[in-house]
Amino acid sequence: MNGIELFLLGRTLMKIGEETIPTGAVGQHSTSHRSVLIVASDIRSHPDTSVGEIADRTGFPQSKVSACVARLREAGAVVTAADPDDRRRLLVRPAAEVSERVAEIRAVPIDDALATALGPEDPQRIAEVTAALDTLARHLTPQALVRLRTTSGTGSAD
Fold first, then answer.
1. Which of 29, 48, 49, 76 has fewest C-beta within 10 Å?
2. CA 36, CA 58: separation in Å to the nearest integer?
């Protein structure tokens, strides 16, 4: 596999992941699932961080990060608080308890989306792909992106 094939695989996996996210009762938002997930991943890797710092790390404009944080706060995935050292800054951290909305999203299995993407339903094939994805997920955590960005000094977020 080369870099282009890896990129295309990642894009395909991202689209399948987006298909699994329930959107009912979410309403209209100016932010994409992808943007929200990138910001959520950054917050998990860097708790107690400001919108400006998230924008610096993700490459998103502060307005986009603010919109993503608002969606995450609405879903109960993050909490915000004034920075004790600089009351003008707002710090963002993952919520201590999982909200109903976050639990609902995490509980959706990928099987249906995989079955749709793979073609005619073949339970053994779906189980194989799911096992391979589980293995990848154990090894390629969000921390891998931090290491990659630190080492290469590059990396576009969206």
1. 48
2. 11
CA distance 15 to 113: 10
The Cα 158–Cα 156 span in angstroms is: 6
**H helices present in the chain, as ranges:** 3-20, 33-45, 51-58, 62-74, 100-107, 111-118, 123-139, 142-152
Using pLDDT thresholds of 50, 70 and 90, give the confidence band for residue 53: very high
d(CA 83, CA 86): 5
CB neighbours of residue 143 within 10 Å: 10
Q: Are 36 and 72 in contact (CB under 8 A)?
A: yes
- State how far the Cα of 83 lies from the Cα of 128, in Å rounded to an integer: 46
Question: How many residues appear in the chain?
Answer: 158
Q: What is the DSSP string of 29-70?
A: -SS-HHHHHHHHHHHHHS-SEEHHHHHHHH---HHHHHHHHH
Q: For 80-125, what is each residue's pLDDT tens digit?
A: 999 898 888 889 999 998 888 778 877 888 888 888 888 877 888 9
Kindly report which listed range (55-59, 91-95, 120-124, 145-149) carries the lowest average pLDDT score.
145-149
CA distances from 152 to 91, 130, 141, 156 (A): 28, 30, 17, 11
